[in-house]
Specification:
373 residues, mainly beta, Porin, 15-stranded antiparallel sheet
Amino acid sequence: MKKLSAILLMSLIVTTASLQGAGLSILEQSVSGLGRGLSGMAASSGDPSALYFNPAAGAGCETFMLTTGMHVLTGDVQFHDGGSTLSGKKSGDIVGTSFIPNLDAVLPIGDGLTLNMAMSATSGTATKYDARWTGRYFSTETSISVLEIAPSVSYRINDEWAVGIGFLAQYCDVLMKQNLNTTDVMAAYGLPGRDSRLKMEGDGWAFGFTAGILYKPTKTTTFGLGYRSSMQHNVKANARVTDIPPALASMQGLSGTSYHDHARIAMDQPQSITFGIRQEVTDKLTLMADIAWTDWSTLKDMPVKFHKGSLTGKYVANKMEWHDSWRFSIGAEYALTEKWTLRCGFTFDERTVTVHSEPPLKAVAPSAVTVKK
């Protein structure tokens, strides 16, 4: 008999629909930085929470410093049907509330040298749809979390120059769920059917490096440049397909209505460069700006490779087609008192996904499948 993998492969497109603005990036590494729209982060000296953007930031610390924070992310994202032929329900808000912690520490050891440690969530997404929504064959739930540990060293060369370099270790945890359109497959042969369900869950590590410089030409002006390398995540996942119609399971030569598989999910983290400037206008007022570039165009796809691929096929490309993005931010700080500082800022983050007209979702034609007994 001929396998039915071809038609099921067409329905296996795991998407992360909420990723448009900053791609996969989560830029919640600094409470003070968010207060000014992430402006001046690459040029911050003596602020441990700026280590993510520039490892040279620790050079300005003269004593041991420890900062920590908790960020709350939420949103309201709705799906609107543009005329698809797939039946299903309209899903409500697909994103929930997430809590993002960060911890940063700087330890001076003498002669302008400091040891630094930064820990934060750097990337991720979380979307959850109604199990019967129109796009259930694309995704019903997706969760990607990337946690980073970044030890680094900073060295102040003189009053004008400081440098820093660090090691990046990222842990990636992935959960993906979706339906497989076995209902229409069985209906094409006059047999009762139901949707099968696919769940993939796994994790993996990736490694890279970061480097940066600080330049202070005057007592009131600081320039900074930070670089983060690309990293390649190769997530090893356990895959499980359940609720397979018994007749289809027999056609596929399966011993039951479910089976386990192994999968590898490739997810690249792009390189990025951040340039910043801080200008002290008065003893109390400081103006800041940042420009950041992220090489998202290298993320061509997010391929998934299966070991068995009985119903899913051996390989799924998951085309991304993202483009590079730029982030621009400006902000200000005002030292109201010795204990209170007022901050404000504005950030424009270019979207990574090209917006263009897409054809509506179409039902997969089960007549394209032939079964030979």
